[in-house]
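Our collaborator T.R. sent over the components below with a one-line note: 'Predict the complex.' Nothing else. No constraints on interfaces, no templates requested, no preferences about which chain binds where. So this is a plain run: every listed entity goes in together, and whatever single assembly comes back becomes the starting point for the next discussion.
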Amino acid sequence: MISFADTGFLFRFLPVFMVVYFLVPAKYRNHILTLGSIVFYALGEGIFVVLLLGLIVVNYSFESASFRVRTHKGEDHIRKARLFYMITAVTINLAVLILFKGMAVFKDNTLLPLGLSFYIFKMISFQVDVYRHRIPRSTTLAQTAAYFSLFPQISQGPIMRFEEGCFDEEHSFSWENIEEGLRYFVIGFAMKVVLADRIGILWNDIGMYGYESISTPLAWLGAFAYSFELYFDFWGYSLMASGIMVALGFDFIRNFDHPYASGTVSEFYRRWHMTLGSFFRDYVYFPMGGSRCSSLRMCFNLMVVWLLTGLWHGNGWNFLIWGGVLGIIIVLEKLLYGKKLEQIPVLRSVYLVFVIVLSWVIFAIGDLNRLGVFFGRLFPFFGDSGVVNTSDIFEYIADYWWMFLICIVLCIPKVAVLYDKHKKSPVVTALLTVIFWIAVYFSVSTKGNPFMYLHF
Amino acid sequence: MKKTPLIIALISSAILLELLAVAGYNNIYAMQKFDPVKEPVFSKVFTAINDGIYPWDIFNAQKRSEEAKEAEDLREKEEAMKSKDQSGKIENEVLNVEDINVGNSDDLNPSPSASPTPTATPSPTPGPKYPQGRLEPLRESTYDEYINHISADIYGDTGVLRAAEYEFKKVGIEFFDDALFIGDSRTVGLRDYTELKDHADFLCETSLTIKKVFTSDFKGKGTVEKALAAKDYGKIYIMVGVNELGTGTTEDFIEDYANVVDTLHELEPEAKIIIMSIMNIDREKSTSDKIFNNSNILGRNNAIATLADNETIFYININEAVCDEDGFLRDDLRGDHLHLLGASNEIVVEYLKEHGV
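Returned assembly:
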């Protein structure tokens, strides 16, 4: 039920929650939001809900302590005391994250609570924003708990900032908000269930007989399929999350802004998983000096940010390599060719797609030997294994061409502009209705598990 | 109302679907299971589409009665299994499991006393054309096994041992010039990555099950029936069974399998039919998956091996060639958990060459 695409969530939890949420007086909505979120998390993650509750209490305590600092010893003393609370709280949060990530690496992957990386980052941003006075007034436990545990965001973000949630305002009921949220939700739902989950099967299938045996065209097709899977899975999920938030009366949080229309890798990551990018920018890169320092220092700062980004995404060496490679490319763009490249229309797009798609291959394949084999198939300069099915791509193209076509069309920013212009027309409404039921069909017939569709 | 057209469209279409599901609840949707705690009734409409039952079939009287009857039969079967399970429990408790599973090539028809319950289920059509006769199962699948998707080992290894008595001969690659291979993705590997494709014909596709052998048109290549009509095959190899693990019982599977083998024999009487064992799964998946595991595969392999008469129908156990001493698909040969690396398919070809009939 922890997945938004699950029927238990769609047709049971969400409608019941919405009714209860809007039936209670507005001043209790943060309480209901917390309660609903805790139930949601407990249903999916069981005992780990205790960790979440514990961290909520700890973070709220430090925030309260920070706002309670009163002294006659002057502003400097107050600042130091607040700094102490902030550093202690951030350290505790980071220690918990490192502890569980470590246990996942060295013990068992199931020891990593769902969404831990996301809600810990919210907690860190919260503590720093309290210290920086971006959160001007002391919050209530209900507000803090609602912010940290928000069920639409807890498993995969977006990493919303506390002030973006306007928790001290009343989130009032509005049919228009629900309609608007539903539109985002339907689009995101279809992106995930109809596109990402289906095209992901291609990526899974090409590994069936080992990467040694796939043709070079199929290796490239697979790399594109994985890139689309990742994009529409994550963008779709973000739209579903933000759609629910809009329906509940919150502002829309943008997490993706047509990244594939970018011209450089640094621009791509300003438009991809934007809330994570801005987190690293505001809480790591800028405090280290950002780009307002020597070139050497800036390179160092960028590399730190990208290696941390790699570590945040996963436990394998491949994530570190992925972050490192992106860091190096972004450094090279800043120092050498980024500005010039942005002005060459076609070349910049080819460069961007080429680099990003290859970087996703590193992201996808955890086993470094298999990663090497896959790159050997992408660039067959050293020959092949001798057992390659050179015509393998035709069968996949016959099965998947229409999906690639939809994915490519949805990567064009003008399509979104067109949608915005006509989104209230009867045709678009009818289309969204049909799309919704197609997505429900996939969700119901796979019981929320796309890999039910894997056949051998 | 004007401001919320999508909400209205979704709610009205949901009501329509719900009405449809309720109308078809005991007929066209009678076979569709759903969990009322997690799903609305209309989820039946969607799961039914997967089974080829579309909303407009509600107007088709034949379809309505077919589905209702099938659901009734299934209910009866489940009830029968359940009641037998309860009455057979005491007998099972005193039964030594080894007595059931250890087969003896001399003892082709185990004595009734070795059977935990009388073999009341229809045995896979023993026909006169099989001189040695098809084996009876030693016991029936239990209700617990059925609902837990366990493919019961109801035959033991008697069939396997009997099939292994045949003296297979070494053959060259030209032996396969008049061979047809029917199978799922594992056979696709054999087709795409070995020299067999230059000699034999292949009708194979990912996700093939025993039920689909005669209905599939193999992505436009034509049906098995057409292929057999167009060319005289001397050998027909068949390897299916992994996709339907977890569905039905071993009895259901062997019944379907026997029908396929018998039909192949009818359509191509001169052809030798070689049943290839369902290839085992690697250690990681087999030890963690409730359905896709080697225990379930063993139950089904032991069943299909009993179809071999060593004259027209043969059984070869390719797991001898590709598995380690614990029966898991070897790590150095596998592509993913269930498939051989492209290059490893050559080992199967070598095995087939050593097991000519």
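Summary for T.R.: Residues 158-354 of chain B form a domain with the Rossmann fold fold (CATH 3.40.50.1110).
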